[in-house]
């Protein structure tokens, strides 16, 4: 029978593996650590417990605007996928649009229409153009803003577009009972965000300004296009993205959260005020 070496009893052993002699000590806590429990670091060897503790306290990597770094534009993909699925359902059940489009005359009693309208589209070309714009803008903005800021920017821009339609439609005009659909209000908000962020970092904005001018002209002179929704989404996008872009570095999260809440409350307040005036 093999006899245990008496020297092992006096040698330092790894706390996680007491049967293993460990002469290497953790640079943080000073405990012995065996090769399996050693984590190399810039200042020596750490044990797995200290390495895990340090990792949990370490702040995540942030983007230039303070957002959490994300591997891909997940929210953008989900939004595009949702709009495509909803359009497919529209083709099977055309009545869906009548339940979820934005009709000013129905807005007070059916407030979900303020946002649900952004998921609907009038034609395949309408869907294709909006989804292309959303894909391009989302893949640029979401990694920079982070997921929650990008989601808030998109949703508030859609809400701002519907709110503008609500205020600018006269109760005595046909537009009061006409339904509007599309993610264009949200997309104009994303266009506005690209402009604001480029200005924030001192980059050339001539390209985005040219695109905005072209789209705004098309919105005004084109047939069956809600320029009111585009304008409302654009103004909301300007405001929200300015809050994110110019928030003080040391207070980005607080300013971003409360700024987002403030814009949301203001838009809801405008919608309620309009409903009371009708």
Automatic annotation (TrEMBL):
Residues of the Peptidase S54 rhomboid domain: 109-245
GO molecular function: serine-type endopeptidase activity
GO annotations of cellular component type: membrane
Keyword match Transmembrane: yes
Subcellular location: Membrane
UniProt keyword list: Hydrolase, Membrane, Protease, Transmembrane, Transmembrane helix
Pfam families referenced in this protein's UniProt entry, alphabetically: Rhomboid
Membrane topology: Multi-pass membrane protein
Annotated transmembrane regions: 78-100, 112-138, 150-169, 175-196, 208-225, 231-247, 254-277
Family: Belongs to the peptidase S54 family.
Entry protein name: Membrane associated serine protease, rhomboid family
